Amino acid sequence: QRRRQEKVVVVMGATGTGKSRLSVDLATRFYGEVINSDKMQVYKGLDVATNKSTAADRRGVPHHLLGIVDDPDAAFTAAEFVRRSSMAAEEISGRGRLPIIAGGSNSLVEALTVADRQFRSRYECCFLWVYVSAPVLHSVVSERVDRMVAGGLVEEAAEFFNPSGDYSRGIRRAIGVPELHEFFKNGPFVGGEAAGADLLEAAIVEIKENTCKLTRRQLGKIWRLREKLAGRRMHRLDATGVFLNRGGEAVEAWEKMVVGPSTRILARFLISEDEEEDAHSQPVTVDQAYILT
């Protein structure tokens, strides 16, 4: 008789779609804890640039693998993620709670849920994909970068300025640091305040462009991951309508379009021996033109 597998939830999606928000929503409903799967958020520092969840965002839900690497130049490999996340999932499950893996580094998710045989044999995964259409997501990303700049992105990125221009290792690879190099290097010396402002504006534009490119790469990886799941279903939750609303209407749309359907999917997943089809989840479709190959 096949040993009953323990349950794990995997929340996926491009940058800015609400993965972290959904992971906390589900954790509060299903006695869960969140395991971070964002390769930049494992480092200490750059909380604004890497968009780490604040204490208020986490709403008392324990988070694992968040800000655990002290050395900004250290390598954090997929193998290290598999080791640490497997330990976290075992510890969380051992206390009778639900591990919820959430983050934007889909290569790490694949290394754990597809490539690692030991994890696959022990855990049954429910994959939730928070999807937002490309034109809407690009607008969301642009607005979010503006909020990050207002929230101190430039000031915290200055602490990671490298005069040599090498941003190829560790947390310095995070979007928002390399793009500001010319501003930090030349801004104070290129003809006064106006010229410095032009360098800053150019850096902000580049941050927005690179973040949009990141969302396309993330979507491509999610699509390819779906093909590797070997029959395991990925549930798409279309959150596009959420970002077309404001204020209370956006909150209502989030509950209706994302939290409600995912709660029903997860409830059925947790009480079944094998994950069942859910009438409220949508078939996976994707704009192939939006994927970077």
Characterization of this structure:
By secondary structure, the chain is an alpha/beta fold. It has 10 helices and 6 strands. The protein has helices at residues 19-30, 55-58, 78-94, 106-115, 117-122, 134-150, 153-158, 181-186, 193-228, 247-271; strands spanning 6-13, 32-36, 63-64, 98-102, 123-131, 234-238. The chain has a 6-stranded parallel β-sheet, with helices on both faces. The longest helix is centred in the C-terminal third of the chain and has 36 residues, at 193-228. Keywords: ATP-binding, Cytokinin biosynthesis, Nucleotide-binding, Transferase, Transit peptide. This is adenylate dimethylallyltransferase (ADP/ATP-dependent). It catalyses: dimethylallyl diphosphate + ADP = N(6)-(dimethylallyl)adenosine 5'-diphosphate + diphosphate; dimethylallyl diphosphate + ATP = N(6)-(dimethylallyl)adenosine 5'-triphosphate + diphosphate. It comes from Erythranthe guttata.
